[in-house]
Write a structure and sequence with these properties.
Elements (H helix, E strand, L loop, with lengths): L3 E7 L4 E2 H7 L6 H9 L4 E2 L2 E2 L6 E2 L4 E4 L2 E7 L5
Parallel strand pairs: 1-7
Antiparallel strand pairs: 2-5, 3-4, 3-6, 6-7
Helix pairs in contact: 1-2
Length: 78
């Protein structure tokens, strides 16, 4: 199964995991983010992450199914 890589440009880093999920429209609100994160639906840098407040930085990845979201800075050309 091939993975689809998407670069997500963030102006201010770090960004909290729950906020990131809302930004990329993977969840609609904080309640949904909390439930899905605690259920272990997402991988951060290849590891199941269950902390909504986890701070994500440049180069971190968030995986959901076959999609990998990679955090880049707003001036990154990738």
């Amino acid at each position: 199964m091939s993975k689809n890589l998407k670069y997500i440009k963030i102006k201010e880093l770090p960004i909290r995991f729950g906020q990131f999920l809302k930004l990329v429209n993977l969840v609609q609100d904080g309640i949904e983010a909390k439930m899905r994160i605690q259920a272990g639906e997402f991988l951060v840098n290849g590891v199941v992450e269950t902390r909504r407040g986890k701070k994500l930085n440049l180069g971190d990845t968030v995986n959901l199914d076959t999609v990998i979201y990679k955090i880049s800075h707003s001036d990154h050309q990738g």
